[in-house]
């Protein structure tokens, strides 16, 4: 082995270094990684913030937490252990103060999205969710906001109603079948998932995806989306890795990793094709359809008004992105709601009583679907829904933003420009100052006790995010939930098949849940 001596001529020194590196490369590599990690830990302006040791040295801690699907739970534990500001990566802190989170997410404060979002496909044509250039995002969102208004959604209400009828027919089939001696549970969780997808198909593309009809995950479309979200969630923690993986040209040669032929993408492309060429006289409407103003038609109209700012690629990206953003989120919200109310007999009976009274007094119809206003009049049910979104918000990963270049003050701490700051609904919604000492438990009554207190709690609910990135689909989600949930609860009686068993939950971006099995009977 060569020994390095001072005074050697440069080629000799170089050869010696090379041979030393060749022999000892594993040690050198490990030493480099350790020193780099320690430098990140100790020479960072974030060094004073507590957190897991590994997290302060490497982003692998976040990768690990996400890969286990339990980021939401990890963050509750972290803040309990370390306090309101926790260092969760060399350049990232998580905050638990709801007021600070409002500031972080509020429009105009210039805390922009991080590169985490850019990993979500399609990278070549980002949609509203994945666009991280704030000005471009604002332009696209202005066009996309139009079809998502509550008024526009109300127009599409008949198609939600049709999907509800299909859902009810499946329950009727189950009830008739379940009269046999071997009574099997009904997977309400799965059916809520199918419902959320089918509604999106109708609303976005005037097309039924067929999940409810077939009573199954057709072509494993839901699984494919969930797999892709798991990838996004994990790789999004170290976005550079995406260039080695999905953005790597070799990736497309691995057929089972490609989503290009997935059912939803294929259908979206077909629907786009049917409406091309986009012209002002057809205004994006389906030529052979029922003339409904679906999401795709509205986006095509937005494109025709200003093709420079909202291209054809944007039409596809935004419509297709809606299915990804709006399916697991809505399904997860409804699953959490049902699991909570069915786990507490008292709560469930209060809801049933409220519905019976509303029918008896004519506040809601005794048959068929409710409209938005009728559902809003069910105050106890509304409190139960809000409480479910508080205790188990559908987004389980952190919402992360970058501190603007000049730095910013949050929760009494100054963070330098470029620091990533994260917040998590599961943590924020458990703040005892805002939600009370019993914030950890599901108790819908908290929303009905004191109007002022309820208003304050409302101010700190983050289930739909906030500011310029407030969920664009919240009107649709709330409308379909407010239609299907009271209808189910009025027309049927539910019982958990395995009381006490928690839902299985995996946080990829949304908390994807399973295991909501119930017995259903008629009242
Ligand atoms: C109960 C159901 C839903 C929940 C809980 C939910 C939650 C959220 C949250 C928390 C965000 C902010 C994410 C962030 O800033 O990182 C968001 C954004 C978004 N959501 Fe939803 N969502 C739901 C339903 C929907 C539906 C039905 C659609 C579309 C059909 C949709 C489309 C979007 C889009 C496009 C964004 C990005 C908005 C932006 O960045 O400007 N969501 N959603």
UniProtKB/TrEMBL annotation:
**Record carries keyword Isomerase:** no
Q: Which CDD domains match?
A: CYP57A1-like
Q: Which sites bind heme?
A: 471
User: What keywords is this UniProt entry annotated with?
Assistant: Heme, Iron, Metal-binding, Monooxygenase, Oxidoreductase
Question: What is an example of a GO molecular function annotated in this UniProt entry?
Answer: oxidoreductase activity, acting on paired donors, with incorporation or reduction of molecular oxygen
PROSITE patterns hit by this protein: CYTOCHROME_P450 (PS00086)
Q: Which domain of life is it from?
A: Eukaryota
For this protein, the record's InterPro entries field holds: Cyt_P450 (IPR001128), Cyt_P450_CS (IPR017972), Cyt_P450_E_grp-IV (IPR002403), Cyt_P450_sf (IPR036396), Cytochrome_P450_monoxygenase (IPR050121)
Q: Which cofactor does it need?
A: heme
Q: Does the keyword Iron apply?
A: yes
The family note in this entry says: Belongs to the cytochrome P450 family.
Q: What is this protein called?
A: Uncharacterized protein
Q: Which organism is it from?
A: Chaetomium thermophilum (strain DSM 1495 / CBS 144.50 / IMI 039719)
């Amino acid at each position: 082995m060569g020994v390095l001596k001072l005074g050697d001529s440069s080629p000799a020194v170089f050869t010696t270094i090379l041979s030393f590196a060749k022999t000892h490369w594993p040690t050198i590599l490990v030493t480099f990684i350790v020193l780099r990690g320690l430098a990140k830990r100790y020479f960072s302006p974030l060094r004073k913030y507590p957190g897991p040791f590994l997290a302060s040295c490497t982003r692998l801690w976040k990768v690990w937490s996400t890969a286990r699907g339990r980021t939401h739970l990890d963050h509750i534990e972290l803040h309990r252990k370390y306090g309101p500001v926790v260092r969760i990566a060399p350049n990232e802190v998580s905050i638990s103060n709801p007021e600070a989170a409002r500031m972080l997410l509020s429009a105009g404060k210039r805390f922009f999205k991080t590169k985490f979002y850019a990993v979500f496909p399609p990278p070549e044509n980002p949609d509203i969710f994945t666009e991280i250039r704030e000005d471009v995002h604002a332009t696209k969102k202005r066009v996309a906001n139009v079809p998502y208004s509550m008024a526009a959604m109300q127009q599409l209400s008949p198609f939600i109603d049709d999907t509800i009828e299909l859902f009810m027919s499946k329950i009727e089939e189950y009830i008739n079948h379940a009269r046999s001696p071997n009574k099997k549970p009904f997977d309400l969780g799965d059916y809520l998932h199918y419902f959320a997808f089918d509604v999106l198909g109708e609303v976005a593309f005037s097309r039924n995806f067929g999940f409810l009809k077939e009573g199954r995950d057709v072509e494993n479309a839901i699984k494919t989306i969930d797999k892709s979200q798991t990838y996004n969630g994990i790789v999004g923690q170290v976005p550079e890795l995406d260039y080695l993986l999905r953005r790597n040209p070799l990736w497309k040669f691995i057929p089972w990793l490609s989503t290009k032929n997935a059912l939803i993408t294929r259908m979206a492309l077909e629907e786009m094709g049917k409406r091309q060429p986009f012209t002002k006289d057809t205004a994006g409407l389906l030529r052979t359809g029922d003339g409904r103003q679906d999401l795709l038609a509205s986006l095509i109209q937005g494109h025709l008004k200003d093709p420079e700012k909202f291209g054809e690629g944007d039409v596809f990206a935004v419509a297709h992105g809606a299915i990804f953003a709006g399916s697991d989120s809505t399904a997860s919200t409804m699953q959490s709601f049902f699991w909570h109310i069915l786990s507490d007999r008292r709560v469930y009976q209060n809801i049933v009583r409220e519905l019976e009274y509303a029918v008896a007094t004519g506040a809601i119809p005794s048959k068929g679907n409710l409209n938005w206003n009728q559902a809003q009049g069910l105050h106890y049910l509304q409190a139960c829904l809000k409480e479910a979104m508080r205790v188990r918000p559908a987004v389980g990963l952190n919402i992360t933003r970058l501190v603007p270049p000049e730095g910013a003050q949050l929760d009494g701490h100054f963070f330098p420009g470029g620091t990533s700051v994260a917040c998590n609904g599961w943590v924020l919604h458990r703040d005892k100052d805002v939600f009370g000492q019993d914030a950890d438990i599901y108790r819908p009554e908290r929303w009905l006790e004191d109007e002022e207190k309820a208003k304050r709690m409302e101010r700190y609910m983050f289930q739909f995010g906030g500011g310029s990135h407030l969920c664009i689909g919240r009107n649709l989600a709330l409308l379909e939930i407010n239609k299907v949930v009271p209808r189910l609860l009025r027309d049927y009686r539910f019982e958990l098949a395995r009381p006490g068993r928690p839902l299985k939950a995996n946080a990829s971006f949304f908390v994807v849940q399973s295991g909501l099995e119930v017995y259903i009977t008629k009242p």
